[in-house]
Amino acid sequence: MKIDSNTIQTDNKLPLVEEFFSLQGEGYHTGKAAYFIRIGGCDVGCSWCDSRYSWNQNLHPMVETKTIIENVLKSGTDSVVVTGGEPLMWNLDFLCSELKKRNISTFIETSGAYPLSGEWDWICLSPKKNSPPVNDICGIADELKVIIQDKSDYEWAEKYRDLVSTECRLFLQPEWSRFAINVSDIVEYIKKNPYWRISLQSHKYMHIP
């Protein structure tokens, strides 16, 4: 049962898993410098998730959003990526409004399993079969990134390609633990369906966060 994201915000605090200044490693903005904010809590439960440590929000400290914003400003970045876990479990209106006041661009990576909050310059939607997107996020997503674990995921990808706008950028990303198995199939699929592009997790090759 989904929790209303507006009911679990606590005094403008967020369960902070980690925050760091690095380069975006995957998708449309690969290579761009950004400050990453990873928020705890996720009930989507992907079997191949590489950030399971973020799932249990109770394992991570509730940090004042103002403190997080101060750390963003200290980094000197002009862009913030909010990720998880599933960040939309939390109301992100205050975080985004404060960042926008300071001319910081806001990016989110989400499964779309919870209602959208916050003001975003870029929405990367990565829909998961365990808990599909809700409401109308498909129509406003800037980027669709589908993780390919097995051949059934191509059908899932095409389902959501039909739901996003024609301006949405389309990416297929091999699940990391099955990269060697899947990458050649993804290459062949994209050659036949060139509206897709491949997304590689370049930060893992570079050994950076």
Question: What can you see in these coordinates?
Answer:
The protein is of the alpha/beta class. It has a single domain, classed as TIM Barrel, CATH 3.20.20. Helices cover 25% and strands 24% of the residues. The protein has six helices and nine strands; from the N terminus they run E-E-E-H-E-H-E-E-H-E-H-E-H-E-H. It has helices at 65-75, 93-101, 137-140, 152-161, 179-192, 202-206; strands at 13-23, 33-39, 62-64, 79-83, 105-110, 122-125, 143-148, 169-174, 197-198. It has a nine-stranded mixed β-sheet. Strand 4 (79-83), helix 2 and strand 5 form a beta-alpha-beta unit. The longest helix has 14 residues, at 179-192. It is globular and about 50 Å long.
Search tags:
25% helix; 209 residues; 9-stranded mixed β-sheet; single chain; TIM Barrel; alpha/beta; disordered N terminus
In short:
With 209 residues, the protein is an alpha/beta fold. 25% of the residues lie in helices and 24% in strands.
Secondary structure: elements and pairs:
Layout: E1 13-23, E2 33-39, E3 62-64, H1 65-75, E4 79-83, H2 93-101, E5 105-110, E6 122-125, H3 137-140, E7 143-148, H4 152-161, E8 169-174, H5 179-192, E9 197-198, H6 202-206
Parallel strand pairs: 2-4, 4-5, 5-6, 6-7, 7-8, 8-9
Antiparallel strand pairs: 1-2, 1-3
Write down the overall mean pLDDT. Answer: 92
SSE run: EEEHEHEEHEHEHEH
CATH superfamily: Aldolase class I
Largest sheet: 9 strands, mixed
Number of strands: 9
Q: Kindly, what is the distance between the CA atoms of the first and last residues, rounded to a whole number of angstroms?
A: 32 Å
CATH architectural group: Alpha-Beta Barrel
Structural class of the secondary structure composition? Answer: alpha/beta
Query: What is the percent of helical residues?
Result: 25-40%
Q: Biggest sheet: strands side by side, in what order?
A: 3-1-2-4-5-6-7-8-9
Write down the CATH class: Alpha Beta
- Domain count, please report it: 1
**Overall 3D shape:** globular
CATH topology: TIM Barrel
Number of helices: 6
- Any idea what the radius of gyration is? 17 Å
Beta-strand content: 15-25%
Task: Give the low-pLDDT segments.
Answer: 1-8
